[in-house]
Amino acid sequence: MASETRRTSHQVTFAVLAAGVTAYALLQSLVTPVLPTIQEDLHTNQNTVTWVLTAYLLSASIFTPIMGRIGDMIGKERVFVVTLGALAAGSLLAALATNVTVMIVARAIQGIGGGVLPLAFGIIRDEFPREKLNGAVGMIASILAVGGGLGIVLSGPIVNALDYHWLFWLPMILTLVSAVAAHFFVPESPVRTPGRISWAPALLLSAWLVALLVALSEAPMWGWGSGKVIGLIVAAVLLAAGWVQVERRAATPLIDMKMMARPAVWTNNLVALLVGVGMYAVFAFLPEFVQTPKSTGYGFGASITQSGLILLPMSVMMFLVGLGSNNLANRIGGKTVVVIGSLIGTVSMALLAFAHTSTWELYVATAVMGAGFGLTFAAMSSLIVSAVPPAQTGVASGMNANIRTIGGSIGAALMASVVTASPAADGLPKEAGYTNGFAMLGGALLIAAVAAMLIPVTRRTTRIDFADEPQHPELAMVPGGTVVGDKPE
Protein backbone atom coordinates (compact mmCIF):
# COMPACT_ATOMS: atom_id res chain seq x y z
CA MET A 1 0.00 0.00 0.00
CA ALA A 2 2.86 2.37 0.79
CA SER A 3 4.37 1.68 -2.62
CA GLU A 4 1.04 2.33 -4.33
CA THR A 5 0.61 5.61 -2.42
CA ARG A 6 4.08 6.65 -3.48
CA ARG A 7 3.26 5.83 -7.10
CA THR A 8 0.08 7.89 -7.19
CA SER A 9 1.97 11.08 -6.29
CA HIS A 10 4.30 11.02 -9.29
CA GLN A 11 2.76 14.23 -10.75
CA VAL A 12 3.67 16.18 -7.61
CA THR A 13 7.10 14.57 -7.56
CA PHE A 14 7.68 15.64 -11.16
CA ALA A 15 6.64 19.24 -10.45
CA VAL A 16 9.15 19.48 -7.59
CA LEU A 17 11.95 17.93 -9.63
CA ALA A 18 11.18 20.21 -12.57
CA ALA A 19 11.40 23.31 -10.36
CA GLY A 20 14.82 22.29 -9.03
CA VAL A 21 16.18 21.48 -12.49
CA THR A 22 14.81 24.78 -13.82
CA ALA A 23 16.69 26.78 -11.18
CA TYR A 24 19.94 24.98 -12.03
CA ALA A 25 19.39 25.40 -15.78
CA LEU A 26 18.73 29.14 -15.46
CA LEU A 27 21.96 29.67 -13.53
CA GLN A 28 23.88 28.02 -16.36
CA SER A 29 23.21 30.91 -18.71
CA LEU A 30 21.69 33.92 -16.92
CA VAL A 31 25.07 35.61 -16.40
CA THR A 32 26.41 35.05 -19.93
CA PRO A 33 25.00 38.24 -21.52
CA VAL A 34 25.91 40.46 -18.53
CA LEU A 35 29.56 39.57 -17.98
CA PRO A 36 30.64 43.07 -19.12
CA THR A 37 28.33 44.57 -16.47
CA ILE A 38 29.74 42.29 -13.76
CA GLN A 39 33.27 43.12 -14.93
CA GLU A 40 32.65 46.85 -14.54
CA ASP A 41 30.80 46.58 -11.22
CA LEU A 42 33.44 44.33 -9.60
CA HIS A 43 36.37 46.32 -11.04
CA THR A 44 38.09 43.43 -12.78
CA ASN A 45 39.32 42.58 -16.28
CA GLN A 46 37.87 40.47 -19.08
CA ASN A 47 40.19 37.53 -18.52
CA THR A 48 39.33 37.28 -14.82
CA VAL A 49 35.58 37.75 -15.23
CA THR A 50 35.41 34.75 -17.58
CA TRP A 51 36.13 32.60 -14.51
CA VAL A 52 32.63 33.50 -13.30
CA LEU A 53 31.54 31.04 -16.01
CA THR A 54 34.54 28.71 -15.89
CA ALA A 55 34.34 28.10 -12.13
CA TYR A 56 30.68 27.11 -12.44
CA LEU A 57 31.48 24.80 -15.36
CA LEU A 58 34.39 23.13 -13.60
CA SER A 59 32.49 22.59 -10.37
CA ALA A 60 29.44 21.18 -12.15
CA SER A 61 31.63 18.83 -14.19
CA ILE A 62 33.19 17.45 -11.01
CA PHE A 63 30.16 17.27 -8.73
CA THR A 64 27.56 15.96 -11.19
CA PRO A 65 28.76 12.33 -11.10
CA ILE A 66 29.81 12.52 -7.45
CA MET A 67 26.40 13.70 -6.22
CA GLY A 68 24.70 11.13 -8.44
CA ARG A 69 26.80 8.37 -6.88
CA ILE A 70 26.14 9.56 -3.32
CA GLY A 71 22.43 9.64 -4.10
CA ASP A 72 22.55 6.05 -5.31
CA MET A 73 24.24 5.11 -2.02
CA ILE A 74 22.35 6.97 0.72
CA GLY A 75 19.10 8.08 -0.91
CA LYS A 76 18.33 10.28 -3.88
CA GLU A 77 15.67 12.46 -2.22
CA ARG A 78 17.97 13.33 0.69
CA VAL A 79 20.89 14.23 -1.57
CA PHE A 80 18.56 16.13 -3.92
CA VAL A 81 17.60 18.43 -1.03
CA VAL A 82 21.26 18.90 -0.02
CA THR A 83 22.21 19.70 -3.61
CA LEU A 84 19.48 22.33 -3.88
CA GLY A 85 20.72 23.77 -0.58
CA ALA A 86 24.21 24.17 -2.01
CA LEU A 87 22.77 25.81 -5.12
CA ALA A 88 20.83 28.28 -2.95
CA ALA A 89 23.87 29.02 -0.76
CA GLY A 90 26.00 29.74 -3.81
CA SER A 91 23.29 32.00 -5.23
CA LEU A 92 23.09 33.95 -1.96
CA LEU A 93 26.86 34.44 -1.88
CA ALA A 94 26.92 35.54 -5.53
CA ALA A 95 24.11 38.04 -4.96
CA LEU A 96 26.07 39.60 -2.06
CA ALA A 97 29.52 39.44 -3.71
CA THR A 98 31.46 42.70 -3.65
CA ASN A 99 34.58 41.46 -5.45
CA VAL A 100 35.30 38.99 -8.23
CA THR A 101 37.02 36.44 -5.95
CA VAL A 102 33.88 36.00 -3.86
CA MET A 103 31.80 35.80 -7.04
CA ILE A 104 34.01 33.03 -8.45
CA VAL A 105 33.85 31.06 -5.17
CA ALA A 106 30.07 31.49 -5.15
CA ARG A 107 29.79 30.15 -8.69
CA ALA A 108 31.91 27.12 -7.75
CA ILE A 109 29.49 26.39 -4.89
CA GLN A 110 26.58 26.73 -7.30
CA GLY A 111 28.23 24.11 -9.50
CA ILE A 112 27.43 21.48 -6.86
CA GLY A 113 23.88 21.91 -8.13
CA GLY A 114 24.88 19.90 -11.20
CA GLY A 115 23.87 16.87 -9.16
CA VAL A 116 20.17 17.73 -9.53
CA LEU A 117 20.00 16.15 -12.98
CA PRO A 118 21.23 12.61 -12.24
CA LEU A 119 19.31 12.66 -8.95
CA ALA A 120 16.11 13.73 -10.73
CA PHE A 121 16.52 10.96 -13.30
CA GLY A 122 17.10 8.43 -10.53
CA ILE A 123 14.05 9.54 -8.56
CA ILE A 124 11.89 9.33 -11.68
CA ARG A 125 13.04 5.80 -12.38
CA ASP A 126 12.40 4.76 -8.77
CA GLU A 127 8.97 6.36 -8.42
CA PHE A 128 7.18 6.62 -11.74
CA PRO A 129 4.93 4.04 -13.40
CA ARG A 130 6.85 2.42 -16.22
CA GLU A 131 4.49 3.77 -18.90
CA LYS A 132 5.26 7.33 -17.69
CA LEU A 133 9.00 6.85 -17.30
CA ASN A 134 10.40 7.78 -20.71
CA GLY A 135 8.11 10.78 -21.07
CA ALA A 136 9.14 12.17 -17.68
CA VAL A 137 12.85 11.66 -18.37
CA GLY A 138 12.48 13.39 -21.74
CA MET A 139 10.66 16.30 -20.13
CA ILE A 140 13.39 16.82 -17.51
CA ALA A 141 16.04 16.72 -20.25
CA SER A 142 14.05 19.28 -22.24
CA ILE A 143 13.64 21.53 -19.19
CA LEU A 144 17.42 21.53 -18.70
CA ALA A 145 18.03 22.56 -22.30
CA VAL A 146 15.16 25.06 -22.40
CA GLY A 147 16.24 26.63 -19.12
CA GLY A 148 19.70 27.22 -20.52
CA GLY A 149 18.25 29.13 -23.46
CA LEU A 150 15.61 30.88 -21.39
CA GLY A 151 18.27 32.23 -19.04
CA ILE A 152 19.80 34.24 -21.89
CA VAL A 153 16.35 35.52 -22.89
CA LEU A 154 15.40 36.61 -19.36
CA SER A 155 18.74 38.14 -18.44
CA GLY A 156 18.18 41.47 -20.20
CA PRO A 157 14.68 42.22 -18.82
CA ILE A 158 15.75 41.28 -15.28
CA VAL A 159 18.80 43.54 -15.39
CA ASN A 160 16.82 46.41 -16.94
CA ALA A 161 14.01 46.18 -14.39
CA LEU A 162 16.19 45.49 -11.34
CA ASP A 163 19.95 44.86 -11.53
CA TYR A 164 22.27 41.91 -12.18
CA HIS A 165 22.19 40.81 -8.52
CA TRP A 166 18.63 39.62 -9.11
CA LEU A 167 20.02 37.08 -11.57
CA PHE A 168 21.00 35.26 -8.38
CA TRP A 169 18.24 36.33 -5.98
CA LEU A 170 15.41 34.95 -8.15
CA PRO A 171 16.94 31.48 -8.74
CA MET A 172 17.80 31.33 -5.02
CA ILE A 173 14.15 31.82 -4.10
CA LEU A 174 13.05 29.16 -6.59
CA THR A 175 15.72 26.79 -5.30
CA LEU A 176 14.72 27.20 -1.65
CA VAL A 177 11.06 26.60 -2.47
CA SER A 178 12.06 23.48 -4.43
CA ALA A 179 14.21 22.19 -1.56
CA VAL A 180 11.40 22.56 0.98
CA ALA A 181 8.92 20.93 -1.40
CA ALA A 182 11.34 18.07 -2.11
CA HIS A 183 11.74 17.41 1.62
CA PHE A 184 7.99 17.14 2.18
CA PHE A 185 6.65 15.74 -1.08
CA VAL A 186 9.35 13.64 -2.78
CA PRO A 187 9.45 10.11 -1.32
CA GLU A 188 12.75 8.61 -0.22
CA SER A 189 14.46 6.25 -2.64
CA PRO A 190 13.52 2.56 -2.38
CA VAL A 191 16.58 1.59 -4.47
CA ARG A 192 20.02 1.85 -2.85
CA THR A 193 23.52 0.77 -3.86
CA PRO A 194 25.52 0.11 -0.66
CA GLY A 195 29.13 1.23 -0.73
CA ARG A 196 31.31 4.26 -0.28
CA ILE A 197 32.93 6.97 -2.37
CA SER A 198 36.38 6.01 -3.65
CA TRP A 199 38.17 9.32 -3.29
CA ALA A 200 41.17 8.48 -5.50
CA PRO A 201 38.97 8.21 -8.62
CA ALA A 202 37.07 11.32 -7.54
CA LEU A 203 40.30 13.33 -7.22
CA LEU A 204 41.64 12.07 -10.54
CA LEU A 205 38.32 12.87 -12.22
CA SER A 206 38.51 16.38 -10.79
CA ALA A 207 42.14 16.80 -11.85
CA TRP A 208 41.77 15.82 -15.50
CA LEU A 209 38.56 17.83 -15.92
CA VAL A 210 40.19 20.91 -14.38
CA ALA A 211 43.27 20.53 -16.59
CA LEU A 212 41.19 20.06 -19.75
CA LEU A 213 38.66 22.82 -19.13
CA VAL A 214 41.25 25.37 -17.98
CA ALA A 215 43.25 24.68 -21.16
CA LEU A 216 40.20 25.05 -23.39
CA SER A 217 38.92 28.12 -21.56
CA GLU A 218 42.24 29.95 -21.65
CA ALA A 219 43.46 28.79 -25.09
CA PRO A 220 41.99 31.78 -26.97
CA MET A 221 44.06 34.13 -24.77
CA TRP A 222 47.18 32.02 -24.20
CA GLY A 223 47.26 30.66 -27.75
CA TRP A 224 46.53 27.09 -28.82
CA GLY A 225 50.20 26.43 -29.43
CA SER A 226 51.42 27.84 -26.11
CA GLY A 227 53.35 25.63 -23.71
CA LYS A 228 50.76 26.10 -20.97
CA VAL A 229 47.84 24.94 -23.14
CA ILE A 230 49.72 21.98 -24.60
CA GLY A 231 51.03 21.02 -21.16
CA LEU A 232 47.56 21.11 -19.62
CA ILE A 233 46.06 19.05 -22.44
CA VAL A 234 48.83 16.43 -22.11
CA ALA A 235 48.30 16.40 -18.34
CA ALA A 236 44.55 15.97 -18.86
CA VAL A 237 45.11 12.96 -21.14
CA LEU A 238 47.53 11.30 -18.71
CA LEU A 239 45.32 11.99 -15.70
CA ALA A 240 42.25 10.69 -17.56
CA ALA A 241 44.10 7.48 -18.44
CA GLY A 242 45.11 7.09 -14.79
CA TRP A 243 41.52 7.76 -13.71
CA VAL A 244 40.20 5.00 -15.96
CA GLN A 245 42.72 2.50 -14.56
CA VAL A 246 41.97 3.44 -10.94
CA GLU A 247 38.23 3.21 -11.57
CA ARG A 248 38.62 -0.28 -13.02
CA ARG A 249 40.49 -1.47 -9.91
CA ALA A 250 38.40 0.35 -7.28
CA ALA A 251 36.21 -1.80 -5.02
CA THR A 252 33.43 0.81 -5.28
CA PRO A 253 34.15 2.86 -8.41
CA LEU A 254 32.68 6.30 -8.84
CA ILE A 255 31.97 5.47 -12.49
CA ASP A 256 31.43 1.84 -13.49
CA MET A 257 33.67 1.47 -16.55
CA LYS A 258 31.85 -1.69 -17.59
CA MET A 259 28.67 0.35 -17.69
CA MET A 260 30.38 3.17 -19.61
CA ALA A 261 31.64 0.63 -22.15
CA ARG A 262 28.12 -0.54 -22.99
CA PRO A 263 27.40 0.30 -26.64
CA ALA A 264 24.16 2.07 -25.73
CA VAL A 265 26.01 4.22 -23.17
CA TRP A 266 29.21 5.23 -24.96
CA THR A 267 27.43 5.99 -28.23
CA ASN A 268 24.92 8.27 -26.50
CA ASN A 269 27.76 9.94 -24.61
CA LEU A 270 29.60 10.62 -27.88
CA VAL A 271 26.47 12.22 -29.31
CA ALA A 272 26.07 14.28 -26.12
CA LEU A 273 29.65 15.56 -26.45
CA LEU A 274 29.14 16.69 -30.05
CA VAL A 275 25.70 18.22 -29.49
CA GLY A 276 27.08 20.05 -26.45
CA VAL A 277 29.75 21.55 -28.70
CA GLY A 278 27.06 23.14 -30.84
CA MET A 279 24.51 24.22 -28.24
CA TYR A 280 26.76 25.96 -25.74
CA ALA A 281 28.79 27.71 -28.44
CA VAL A 282 25.56 29.18 -29.87
CA PHE A 283 24.49 30.33 -26.40
CA ALA A 284 27.82 32.12 -26.01
CA PHE A 285 28.33 33.62 -29.48
CA LEU A 286 24.97 34.27 -31.13
CA PRO A 287 24.23 37.13 -28.68
CA GLU A 288 27.66 38.60 -29.43
CA PHE A 289 27.00 38.29 -33.17
CA VAL A 290 23.73 40.22 -33.07
CA GLN A 291 25.12 42.81 -30.60
CA THR A 292 27.91 43.67 -33.05
CA PRO A 293 27.50 47.29 -34.29
CA LYS A 294 25.80 47.84 -37.65
CA SER A 295 28.87 49.77 -38.79
CA THR A 296 30.67 46.45 -39.31
CA GLY A 297 28.35 45.66 -42.21
CA TYR A 298 26.97 42.46 -40.70
CA GLY A 299 25.97 43.19 -37.08
CA PHE A 300 22.54 44.24 -35.89
CA GLY A 301 23.51 46.51 -32.98
CA ALA A 302 21.04 44.64 -30.75
CA SER A 303 20.67 45.22 -27.02
CA ILE A 304 21.03 42.46 -24.42
CA THR A 305 17.26 42.01 -24.38
CA GLN A 306 16.94 41.97 -28.17
CA SER A 307 19.75 39.45 -28.57
CA GLY A 308 18.09 37.22 -26.00
CA LEU A 309 14.77 37.33 -27.84
CA ILE A 310 16.44 35.91 -30.94
CA LEU A 311 17.14 32.77 -28.89
CA LEU A 312 13.55 32.59 -27.61
CA PRO A 313 12.27 30.43 -30.54
CA MET A 314 14.92 27.86 -29.71
CA SER A 315 13.73 27.55 -26.11
CA VAL A 316 10.07 27.39 -27.10
CA MET A 317 10.62 24.79 -29.81
CA MET A 318 12.90 22.73 -27.60
CA PHE A 319 10.18 22.52 -24.98
CA LEU A 320 7.32 21.82 -27.39
CA VAL A 321 9.22 19.20 -29.35
CA GLY A 322 10.39 17.59 -26.11
CA LEU A 323 6.72 17.07 -25.17
CA GLY A 324 6.09 14.93 -28.22
CA SER A 325 9.44 13.22 -28.51
CA ASN A 326 8.39 10.21 -26.42
CA ASN A 327 5.48 9.38 -28.72
CA LEU A 328 7.72 9.77 -31.75
CA ALA A 329 10.37 7.54 -30.18
CA ASN A 330 7.75 4.88 -29.49
CA ARG A 331 6.80 4.90 -33.18
CA ILE A 332 10.16 5.05 -34.93
CA GLY A 333 12.66 4.29 -32.13
CA GLY A 334 14.81 6.50 -29.90
CA LYS A 335 17.89 5.96 -32.05
CA THR A 336 16.13 7.29 -35.14
CA VAL A 337 14.90 10.32 -33.20
CA VAL A 338 18.46 11.16 -32.13
CA VAL A 339 19.69 10.88 -35.74
CA ILE A 340 16.88 13.11 -37.03
CA GLY A 341 17.42 15.66 -34.25
CA SER A 342 21.15 15.90 -34.99
CA LEU A 343 20.48 16.39 -38.72
CA ILE A 344 17.94 19.13 -37.99
CA GLY A 345 20.56 20.80 -35.79
CA THR A 346 23.03 20.66 -38.69
CA VAL A 347 20.54 22.49 -40.92
CA SER A 348 20.12 25.23 -38.29
CA MET A 349 23.88 25.82 -38.13
CA ALA A 350 24.01 26.08 -41.92
CA LEU A 351 21.30 28.76 -41.74
CA LEU A 352 23.30 30.71 -39.16
CA ALA A 353 26.46 30.41 -41.24
CA PHE A 354 25.07 31.47 -44.62
CA ALA A 355 21.67 33.13 -44.05
CA HIS A 356 21.98 35.94 -41.53
CA THR A 357 21.36 39.18 -43.38
CA SER A 358 17.96 39.78 -41.72
CA THR A 359 16.74 39.11 -38.19
CA TRP A 360 13.86 36.92 -39.42
CA GLU A 361 16.46 34.48 -40.77
CA LEU A 362 17.98 34.22 -37.31
CA TYR A 363 14.56 33.56 -35.74
CA VAL A 364 13.98 30.75 -38.24
CA ALA A 365 17.43 29.31 -37.59
CA THR A 366 17.00 29.25 -33.81
CA ALA A 367 13.52 27.72 -34.09
CA VAL A 368 14.90 24.92 -36.28
CA MET A 369 17.74 24.49 -33.81
CA GLY A 370 15.31 24.14 -30.92
CA ALA A 371 13.42 21.42 -32.75
CA GLY A 372 16.61 19.48 -33.37
CA PHE A 373 18.01 19.80 -29.86
CA GLY A 374 14.62 19.06 -28.29
CA LEU A 375 14.36 15.75 -30.14
CA THR A 376 17.96 14.78 -29.45
CA PHE A 377 18.11 15.55 -25.73
CA ALA A 378 14.80 13.95 -24.79
CA ALA A 379 15.41 10.74 -26.76
CA MET A 380 19.03 10.47 -25.69
CA SER A 381 18.20 10.74 -21.99
CA SER A 382 15.57 8.01 -22.28
CA LEU A 383 18.00 5.75 -24.12
CA ILE A 384 20.60 6.16 -21.36
CA VAL A 385 18.09 5.40 -18.59
CA SER A 386 16.85 2.35 -20.48
CA ALA A 387 20.37 1.02 -20.99
CA VAL A 388 21.45 0.66 -17.34
CA PRO A 389 20.08 -0.95 -14.15
CA PRO A 390 18.17 1.34 -11.76
CA ALA A 391 21.07 1.38 -9.30
CA GLN A 392 23.28 3.00 -11.96
CA THR A 393 20.76 5.48 -13.34
CA GLY A 394 22.14 8.45 -11.39
CA VAL A 395 25.75 7.96 -12.42
CA ALA A 396 24.97 7.10 -16.07
CA SER A 397 22.66 10.07 -16.64
CA GLY A 398 24.98 12.35 -14.68
CA MET A 399 27.95 11.45 -16.85
CA ASN A 400 25.87 12.01 -19.99
CA ALA A 401 24.98 15.52 -18.82
CA ASN A 402 28.58 16.03 -17.72
CA ILE A 403 29.95 15.04 -21.11
CA ARG A 404 27.52 17.48 -22.73
CA THR A 405 28.98 20.22 -20.52
CA ILE A 406 32.52 19.24 -21.49
CA GLY A 407 31.43 19.38 -25.13
CA GLY A 408 30.14 22.87 -24.50
CA SER A 409 33.53 23.94 -23.17
CA ILE A 410 35.23 22.56 -26.25
CA GLY A 411 32.72 24.24 -28.56
CA ALA A 412 32.98 27.64 -26.88
CA ALA A 413 36.78 27.55 -26.92
CA LEU A 414 36.97 26.44 -30.56
CA MET A 415 34.37 29.02 -31.58
CA ALA A 416 36.34 31.77 -29.83
CA SER A 417 39.49 30.81 -31.70
CA VAL A 418 37.75 30.71 -35.09
CA VAL A 419 35.74 33.94 -34.62
CA THR A 420 38.71 35.98 -33.41
CA ALA A 421 41.33 34.45 -35.74
CA SER A 422 41.47 37.47 -38.11
CA PRO A 423 40.01 40.57 -36.47
CA ALA A 424 39.16 43.68 -38.46
CA ALA A 425 41.04 46.96 -38.14
CA ASP A 426 38.67 48.11 -35.38
CA GLY A 427 39.42 44.97 -33.36
CA LEU A 428 36.00 43.40 -33.91
CA PRO A 429 35.65 39.97 -35.54
CA LYS A 430 35.07 39.80 -39.28
CA GLU A 431 31.85 38.32 -40.62
CA ALA A 432 33.86 35.41 -42.05
CA GLY A 433 34.88 34.46 -38.52
CA TYR A 434 31.26 33.87 -37.51
CA THR A 435 30.47 32.15 -40.82
CA ASN A 436 33.35 29.73 -40.40
CA GLY A 437 32.51 29.20 -36.73
CA PHE A 438 28.86 28.31 -37.30
CA ALA A 439 29.86 26.08 -40.22
CA MET A 440 32.29 24.28 -37.88
CA LEU A 441 29.47 23.72 -35.37
CA GLY A 442 27.32 22.34 -38.18
CA GLY A 443 30.08 19.87 -38.94
CA ALA A 444 30.13 18.75 -35.31
CA LEU A 445 26.37 18.08 -35.39
CA LEU A 446 26.70 16.17 -38.66
CA ILE A 447 29.29 13.94 -37.00
CA ALA A 448 26.82 13.56 -34.09
CA ALA A 449 24.22 12.23 -36.54
CA VAL A 450 26.74 9.68 -37.81
CA ALA A 451 27.62 8.71 -34.23
CA ALA A 452 23.91 8.29 -33.43
CA MET A 453 23.68 5.64 -36.13
CA LEU A 454 25.99 3.51 -33.97
CA ILE A 455 23.49 3.46 -31.07
CA PRO A 456 22.30 -0.15 -30.75
CA VAL A 457 18.63 -0.99 -31.13
CA THR A 458 17.17 -2.86 -28.14
CA ARG A 459 15.87 -6.25 -29.28
CA ARG A 460 12.85 -7.98 -27.90
CA THR A 461 13.43 -11.26 -26.13
CA THR A 462 11.05 -14.07 -25.22
CA ARG A 463 13.32 -15.69 -22.66
CA ILE A 464 13.62 -14.48 -19.07
CA ASP A 465 16.38 -15.68 -16.80
CA PHE A 466 14.68 -16.12 -13.43
CA ALA A 467 18.03 -15.80 -11.70
CA ASP A 468 17.91 -12.16 -12.74
CA GLU A 469 14.28 -11.61 -11.77
CA PRO A 470 13.82 -8.15 -10.20
CA GLN A 471 13.48 -8.02 -6.44
CA HIS A 472 10.77 -5.35 -6.87
CA PRO A 473 8.98 -5.95 -10.17
CA GLU A 474 6.81 -2.89 -9.69
CA LEU A 475 9.98 -0.80 -10.04
CA ALA A 476 11.10 -2.46 -13.27
CA MET A 477 10.85 -0.89 -16.69
CA VAL A 478 10.43 -2.54 -20.05
CA PRO A 479 12.66 -1.15 -22.82
CA GLY A 480 11.87 -3.03 -26.00
CA GLY A 481 10.19 -5.82 -24.07
CA THR A 482 13.22 -6.72 -21.94
CA VAL A 483 12.67 -6.46 -18.19
CA VAL A 484 15.42 -4.52 -16.45
CA GLY A 485 15.42 -5.10 -12.71
CA ASP A 486 16.46 -2.96 -9.79
CA LYS A 487 19.50 -4.96 -8.67
CA PRO A 488 23.01 -3.64 -9.42
CA GLU A 489 25.04 -5.69 -11.81
UniProtKB/TrEMBL annotation:
Domain of life assignment: Bacteria
InterPro entries: MFS, MFS_dom, MFS_trans_sf
Signal peptide: none
Compartments it resides in: Cell membrane
Tagged with keyword Membrane: yes
Transmembrane spans: 12-36, 48-67, 79-98, 104-124, 136-154, 166-186, 198-216, 222-244, 265-286, 298-324, 336-356, 362-385, 406-425, 437-457
Keyword S-adenosyl-L-methionine: no
Positions of the Major facilitator superfamily (MFS) profile domain: 13-460
Membrane topology: Multi-pass membrane protein
Matching SUPFAM superfamilies: MFS general substrate transporter
CDD domains per UniProt: MFS_MMR_MDR_like
UniProt keyword list: Antibiotic resistance, Cell membrane, Membrane, Transmembrane, Transmembrane helix, Transport
Protein name: MFS transporter
